[in-house]
Specification:
Blueprint: H1 3-26, H2 31-34, E1 44-49, E2 62-67, E3 72-80, E4 83-88, E5 99-101, E6 106-108, E7 115-116, E8 122-124, E9 133-139, E10 142-147
Antiparallel strand pairs: 1-10, 2-3, 3-4, 4-9, 5-6, 6-7, 7-8, 9-10
């Protein structure tokens, strides 16, 4: 390649980068349109160290994860050796704090009796809306919880698997602890 061709290719490359940078700044998606286009604005992975938070380590263990700047209050649960989950802690019926029932592997509201499956889906009213579900995964000595903003599309790993409709959940009328 001769000197002239080399210099022309550098000039063209620099001009192309400058043009793309200018166009890119025009393509910023406003917040109102971000949701429509599926732009994820605020997805984060938050670590919970099991050494520092031993209550979450045993099966049936729980941890309350509060994340103020996203206005999230999440109940993280160790369901079985291979499964950690997180759900919004506020019942969708009257915003009482839900608890986890390890014996029946479900969440329940002590105020009015609503029950949710392990992924936050309503299995008994009076609640009619599911709890938000958050993916939680064990990575070494940490549980990584995927958080997303209220206006963000739900990340793929925070979409619960299909409900198992082959098993009918027995009605539990006993008193809650």
């Amino acid at each position: 390649m001769d000197r002239r061709t080399f210099l022309e290719s550098i000039v063209v490359t620099v001009a192309g980068v400058a043009a793309l940078d200018s166009i890119g700044s025009l393509l910023v998606v406003p917040d109102a349109q971000a949701r429509r286009f599926g732009v994820v604005k605020d997805v984060r992975e938050i670590p919970i160290n099991l050494i520092d938070n031993p209550d979450l380590k045993p099966i049936g263990g729980t941890y309350n994860l509060e994340f103020d700047d996203l206005d999230r209050n999440i109940l993280v649960v160790h369901v079985n050796p291979k499964l950690f989950v997180g759900v919004d802690i506020k019942c969708t019926h009257r915003a009482c704090e839900v608890n986890y029932d390890a014996d029946h592997t479900r969440f329940y509201c002590p105020c009015h009796g609503a029950q949710y499956d392990i992924y936050g889906r309503v299995i008994q009213g009076p609640a009619t809306k599911n709890l938000n579900y958050y993916h939680a995964e064990l990575q070494g000595d940490e549980v990584m919880v995927t958080l997303y903003g209220e206006d963000d599309p739900v990340p793929a790993n925070c979409v619960p698997p299909p409900a198992d409709r082959t098993k009918a959940a027995p009605a539990d009328t006993s008193e809650r602890p």
